[in-house]
Amino acid sequence: MRKIKLLLVLFVLFGFQSNITFAQEKENEYQGIKIYNENTWYWQYHGKPVILRGGSNDDNLFQWTGKQLTDHLDLLQSATGNYVRNSMSDRDEGNVYAFKKVGENTYDLNQWNEEYWNRLTFFLEETSKREIIVQLTLWDHFDIGSGSRWKNHPWNPERNINMDLGTWKGREDFYSTVDRNAHDELNFQNNFIKKLLSISLKYDNVLYNINNESSESEAWENYWAAYVKDAANEANKQVFVTNMQLSAFNAVRHVMSKGDIFDYVDISQTNQDSKGARGPAHWDYLMFLRQKIASYGPIPMNNVKIYGASDGSTNFSAGSETEAVDRFWRNIFGGCASARFHRPSVPSKLWGSGINKRVQTNLKAMDMLLKKLDIFNCNPHNDLLIPRVSVPSMMQAYVTANIGRQYAVYFPQGRYKIDLDPWVFVEKVRLQWLDVNSLKWSEPQIVEIKWDGGKNDWGYRGLLTLETPSNRQCVAFIEIIK
After folding, report:
1. pLDDT tens track for 324-374
2. Which element (helix H / strand E) includes 251?
3. Residue 266: phi, psi to the nearest 5?
4. For domain 31-371, is the CATH number 3.20.20.80?
5. Mean pLDDT (whole number) for 428-453
6. pLDDT, tens only, 224-242
7. Which CATH number fits the domain 379-480, given the four candidates 3.30.420, 2.60.40, 3.30.230, 1.10.10?
8. Fewer CB atoms < 10 Å away: N or C end of the chain?
């Protein structure tokens, strides 16, 4: 009898251990987009760490068809980009709705317009082929915000055969179904997301975001995050979910408060003048959020939108294109996992730069740097800078470093002279300059470190003087010589 009990105990123990091992192996085998095992500030894809960066000329690329889409994705890839945004939006000219049209301006919410879903499948297929990561947004309140958009949308009870007139009078009613526990209304929304996930869960290059620039309730955000997680579990898939709010502060607070259903933060709203900041204040904003997230446990910080358009734009809320470019570099140097230039919109009010020539150049320059710099072992380190001016905030320079090995300093347009302390005792370093606009590296040069107090007795800090070679954007790349 004792032998039988002992065998049962061993069976249970080893069987349980086997299940744990199997689960771990299963997670390790997953080659899709997921949080990087070695450094959870970042993503990995196909088993390798990856910095997500990109730009595109629309926010709902799945609505594009044929060569219009494939040529755009090829352009992004040629510029070394690997990251796009896609909202399930239908408000632009040429877009189609998800529901079947059964009369003049009348739709059936229980029947699908297959063209809508075929476009999504084609989009995910083409991005997957190119190893482009898609940050997919489920809901976009601008689709049904007001006026003609709501008047003509299938969600409007006046435009469908399924709902009683007056059930939803607009955005407020539509986005309050969870709070009101309106089961019948919520059922239509559930069916839409269920159909969406039946397609997107087949692909391993998708990150999920609940709302675009959300100001909806916590209950709404949590409901859909849990819905996506549950659907993924049923499909035996691993997914990562966030929410993008109009306030980056609130977005981070929300994710940190509900870590059981949210996996990463999107801090896009730091990247515009009206909701975020510019120049050194933008860097400080990043560092503030990074500090809070670090106390919670590092998770990726994504920027699926960097606002800022042509320098002649009158959209003062978004900011300038020069500032957008600087935000792109600050985001990556500040330890963010992704950075994408926001799409342009109407000429009179440009919000972003899309993937214009200037964006392409900066994407390529970043790729050139990342081929030399092991960013995944670096951290933001502006504490290593020693300003040479009386007002330090006037001196723009941004540092990422693996202290004792590699350092990179980004300089915006302008002439700058600043000192860098390598922190470790070292006599010489190798220095190269990357000219962003010309996409050229300078020849490497060996530079001696000056130590306060003299070479023999070292001193309390080292000084590597960096003077930009021109007034153009550039990056100083420094390696310790052993």
Report:
1. 999 999 999 999 999 999 998 766 668 889 999 999 999 999 999 999 999
2. helix 248-257
3. -115, 120
4. yes
5. 95
6. 999 999 999 999 999 999 9
7. 2.60.40
8. N
